[in-house]
Amino acid sequence: MASKTREKLIEVARQLFAHKGIENTTMSDIATASEKGRRTIYTYFKNKREIYNAVIEKESEQVVGRLREIFAIDMNPLEKLMRFIDVRIDIVEETIRHERESPVLRTLMVRDVRRMERIRNLAVEKEIEMLRQIMDDGVNMGLFSRERINDAFMAMIMMFQGIELSIMRNNFAFYGIERDEVRVRAKNFILAALTRDDTQATNNPPLQPTDNKH
């Protein structure tokens, strides 16, 4: 019962923060909207900042929830990493599509940029923890190169950011890439970084933007 009450308070606060902003939302607002007394709220949270942090934690967990499902599966680290990349790109595409299709959602995100940025940053931190563990498991099983693991890890994080930006801008054609090719190219890039030696890797130069494709 206590857990359900706490979750309800977090959900009510999330909705109020989204529509009114954190500065314009009071503890009394949360109490009224949740049909709980102020005393009940203070049983779970010392102040509005604690509720805000709980909202951020919950929303970041929703973002990475599907990645956690992949992470929890007992499978070969290489296969798990490939599925992780697929789901990561799926999440970006779905999130951006929902933003474009929902004027209300776009308005709320613009209105509370700071909150959305905190959610994103916390989600990325959790994602990094999972990726690091998958890659360490691959090294321990002899699937990935121990010497190249750190460089590959950083390259993957930057790659995800670049893919997300290109999906937002829809500018893959500028780089001479079909959107449907992105997943395969991303996987091949990571495989090359993790499993190939330096001589083989140099046979695959990075893509360069072209001036005649927009």
TrEMBL record:
<dbReference type="InterPro" id="IPR001647">
    <property type="entry name" value="HTH_TetR"/>
</dbReference>
<protein>
    <submittedName>
        <fullName>TetR family transcriptional regulator</fullName>
    </submittedName>
</protein>
<dbReference type="Pfam" id="PF00440">
    <property type="entry name" value="TetR_N"/>
</dbReference>
<dbReference type="GO" id="GO:0003677">
    <property type="term" value="F:DNA binding"/>
</dbReference>
<dbReference type="InterPro" id="IPR050624">
    <property type="entry name" value="HTH-type_Tx_Regulator"/>
</dbReference>
<feature type="DNA-binding region" description="H-T-H motif">
    <location>
        <begin position="26"/>
        <end position="45"/>
    </location>
</feature>
<dbReference type="InterPro" id="IPR009057">
    <property type="entry name" value="Homeodomain-like_sf"/>
</dbReference>
<keyword id="KW-0238">DNA-binding</keyword>
<feature type="domain" description="HTH tetR-type">
    <location>
        <begin position="3"/>
        <end position="63"/>
    </location>
</feature>
